[in-house]
Design a protein that fits this description.
single chain; mainly alpha; two-stranded antiparallel sheet; 4 helices; elongated
């Protein structure tokens, strides 16, 4: 059972890779985490990788009763990846705003 409190598990949650067996191995996800150092950015990279694979493998195919459109699936995955990157950027901005501090002049002897 996957531990969704770990960075690897959190990436799986964000990309909905919850089936057994998963689309991506734990090693692949750890690789994305090592490159990005952010769960959301790693998830975005994972989605881009899955999108590229989907576009290359599925393409657009039609039979009498079935149809697949790898390009449309890849586009949806890339939009999800862009959304995750935007969320990560907003979180970074918010953290930067919260970390500002001011300097106040201090003299233990009062004003000189």
């Amino acid at each position: 059972m996957m531990d969704y409190s770990t960075p690897t598990g959190q990436v799986r949650l964000l990309i909905a890779d919850l089936r057994d067996p998963p689309i991506l191995s734990d090693d692949m996800i750890r690789g994305f985490l090592d490159m990005q150092l952010s769960v959301k950015r790693a998830a975005a990279d994972a989605l881009d990788a899955i999108a590229s694979s989907e576009a290359l493998l599925s393409k657009v195919m039609r039979t009498q009763d079935r149809q697949t459109n790898g390009a449309a699936v890849a586009d949806a995955l890339r939009k999800h990846a862009a959304s995750l990157r935007a969320q990560a950027a907003a979180e970074d901005e918010s953290a930067a705003e919260d970390s500002h501090f001011g300097i106040v002049e201090f003299s233990p002897y009062g004003r000189l």
